[in-house]
Amino acid sequence: MVRLEHVHKYFNRDTQREVHALDDISLVIEDGEFTVITGTSGCGKTTLLNAIGALDSVDSGRITIGETEITQLDERERAALRLQDIGFVFQAYNLIPVLNVAENIGFIMRLQGYHHEAIEKRIREVAAILEIDHRLSAMPNELSGGQQQRVAVARAVAAKPGLVLADEPTANLDSKNSQRLMQMMKNLNEIEKTTILFASHDDYVVEMSRRQIILSDGHVEKM
Amino acid sequence: MFSLALKNLLFYKGRTLTTFLLSLCSTVLFVVYVAFMDGSHESMLKNSLSIYTGAIQVMQEGHHENPSYDTLLEDLPSVMQTLKNIEGIRAYTPRLESFALLSSEEDSVGAMVTGIVPESEALVSRLKEALVKGRYLDSEDSNGLYMGEELAKRLGVDLGDEIALVGSATDYSFAAERFQIIGLFRTGLFEFDASSAFVNKAYFDALMLSETMASSIVVTVDDLEKAETVAGEIAGQMPSRVEVLTWKKLMASMVQAMEVDSLFGYISMGLFFIVVFFVIMIFGFINISGRIRELGLLRALGVHSYEILKLLLLESAILAFASVLAGTLIGAYLAYFYEVNPIIIKGMAETYKAYGIISDEVPTRFDLFTIAWNAMVVLLLNFLAILYPVYYIRQFTPTEAMRHV
Ligand SMILES: Nc1ncnc2c1ncn2[C@@H]1O[C@H](COP(=O)(O)OP(=O)(O)OP(=O)(O)O)[C@@H](O)[C@H]1O
Ligand SMILES: [Mg+2]
Q1: Are B84 and B34 in a shared domain?
Q2: Taking CB atoms and an 8 Å limit, are A93 and B304 in contact across chains?
Q3: Beta-strand (E) ranges in chain A?
Q4: What atom in ligand 1 is closest to the CA of residue B400?
Q5: Which of A79, A93, A97 is opposite residue B303, by nearest beta carbon?
Q6: Based on the domain organization, do B283 and B332 belong to the same domain?
Q7: What would the pLDDT profile of A30-84 be if each residue is shown by its tens digit?
Q8: Number of domains in chain B
């Protein structure tokens, strides 16, 4: 369960360029949800996701994931939390260029110290669900945008994190591929009970999500 | 982490190759350069020592600073007896130096006339081999004079000519004698050849009243590196007013000149290394700045920035060790090879004859300790070069890094 209480985040605070990116956000996301945060460009979706993912600090308010209050953690603890508990799909630039597809998918598990065979098995498993099992030895720069995005999803879910945060996972995909990716993620959500939180203004994503949170100018307009 | 570091190195081939080659070449160059420098110094020194000075000299206290008849070794036989039993000594011989006026029909020249024991002198110096005309001295010689070629030129004399010696005996009484030139020598040390003449000491002692005396005893050792130890040994067994000097003291000015020369050598190497340092650093910097997003991604995924630091240091360590190792092996091999098979440069002996160099071989010194510290320098350079790039990327937060273009 993810809980946000009166979260505020500013960029360039106390300057001419000050942006109040998150404005008193309070919300709860239950385990197993398949939820999208949506809203116009610049409304604060990425900022919110980064705050929940313990990537960026916030200026005030509280964020808890499960029992952990992440707004209290230091840099090292937040890195450990990201590694152990959260899967990320970023808006752009997701894959480690020097590693091939299989190594990218298994990267998190390797850092977590999983056994080699367990990693191999899991790589094949998620690669099959995301239909990239035929490109396992390819390098990221040899993949299409859609394939790259699916590898990123595979990596995010491979270690079975409690929470997957996906920022515009369909941004670079055509409608058909977007639909396919969403279907696959929905399968993962149903089969593996992974909590998945999207940020997107893509209609397919919004349609397929079971719950929509609409942001507008940094505050929650509708839950 | 190690395999990721390796993969990064393989992936970013440009940086890897340039850094590797650069660091390899610097190591080779450095090792070989220092080997040549040390080699030529060592050979100059050995040359000079073997020409005349010897590794160790035994003298009365104060004689080295201020040579005079007041500071002669008095009890020569017992001192010589003591030397006989000391280990590490190869040979030794006494000399009696006297400054005298030599006159030919044409000219008079002040010269150092030295009484030597011909047989043992031949074992410690190259006087005998330096012969160019006539013959060397022997123990039966009476008023035969063995003279530097240049000195003979200054006097306008040649083999067989007669020379008058005027000087003072060791009791400061007047001493004069006629000598005949029996041999001429050339050591290559110009100053020496222009101002030295030698006489059989047995005969000279009678003239100078110095039967049991000597200015110095010249000692050669089996191993030049151990000269200090042997000198200590000798000093321990000598009477208190006797001084034992090693080549470092005897050749102080030459040793100093070489140190200055080495210093200049190291300064020019230092300048070269500054350039190498910056090139390695710039390549490291370009590489790492090009990877800001990638490193940001790693951190976003939960790799701690400390681990990233380790990763980058590891990459540069692998590069540094591999290149320095390869460079050291190549450099050491070259140094060794050229020590065994010296490079020959025609005419070099001519240029350096003032230092007593008598062959055209470029001497090289193969010394593992020197090579090891040379390698350490390049290694250190590689590490220092990565520090700024690493420091630079640490200022980004993961999200900033990932937005970086
Ligand atoms: N690093 C930053 N520095 C300054 N301002 C920022 C920064 N990141 C975001 N902002 C500002 O904060 C606001 C929210 O940005 P955010 O990236 O969260 O929007 P978004 O909803 O993800 O937009 P999009 O749909 O285009 O991705 C915007 O006004 C943006 O200009
Ligand atoms: Mg965004």
Answers
A1: no
A2: no
A3: 2-11, 19-29, 34-38, 60-65, 68-69, 86-89, 163-167, 195-199, 211-216, 219-222
A4: 1
A5: A79
A6: yes
A7: 999 999 999 998 899 999 999 999 988 899 999 999 888 988 888 889 999 999 9
A8: 2
Which ipTM score applies to this complex?
A: 0.90
CA of A91, closest atom in ligand 1: 27
A contact test, residue of B297, B301, B307, B312 with most A CBs within 10 A: B301
- Give the pLDDT band (50/70/90) at residue B348: low
Clarify whether residues B43 and B77 are in a common domain: no
Q: In which band, very low, low, confident or very high, does the pLDDT at A3 lie, cut at 50, 70 and 90?
A: very high
B162 and B269 housed in the same domain: no
pLDDT in tens, A157-194: 888 888 999 998 888 778 887 888 888 888 888 888 88
Which of residues 114 through 173 in chain A touch B, CB cutoff 8 A?
A: none
Counting ligand 1 atoms within 8 A of each CB, the residue from A37, A43, A206 with the most, and so the one to mutate, is A43
Q: What angle do helix axes B76-84 and B227-237 make, rounded to 10 degrees?
A: 130
Predicted pLDDT of residue B349: 63
B11 shares a domain with B156: no
- What tokens appear for B208 in the block? 């100078």
The bound ligand whose nearest atom lies closest to the alpha carbon of A21 is 1
What confidence score (pLDDT) does residue A47 get? 92
What whole-number distance in Å separates Cα of residue A89 and Cα of residue A95? 10
Q: Give the end of a domain, one of B240, B269, B296.
A: B240
The per-residue pLDDT for B359 is 59
If asked whether residues B197 and B264 sit together in one domain, one would say no
Residue in chain B lying closest to A50 (CA): B399
Atom of ligand 1 nearest to the CA of A49: 18
B405 touches chain A (CB under 8 A): no
> Are A113 and A119 in contact, with CB atoms under 8 Å apart?
no
pLDDT band at B190 (very low <50, low <70, confident <90, very high): confident
* Dist. CA B125–CA B50, nearest whole Å: 5
**Which chain B residues are Cβ-neighbours of A86 within 8 angstroms?**
302
pLDDT in the model for residue B210: 87
Inter-residue contact A11 to A175 (CB < 8 Å): no
Amino acid B384 reads L
Among residues B307, B313, B292, the alpha carbon closest in space to that of B395 is found at: B292
Chain B closest-CA separation from residue A149 CA (Å) = 15
Mean pLDDT lowest for which of B97-106, B155-164, B194-203, B272-281? B272-281
Q: What is the pTM of this model?
A: 0.73
In a domain, B245, yes or no: no
Picking from A55, A98, A99, the nearest residue to B398 by CB comes out as A55
Cβ within 8 Å, pair A98-B299: no
Q: Tell me the pLDDT of chain B averaged across its residues.
A: 86
Q: How many whole angstroms separate alpha carbon B258 and alpha carbon B265?
A: 10
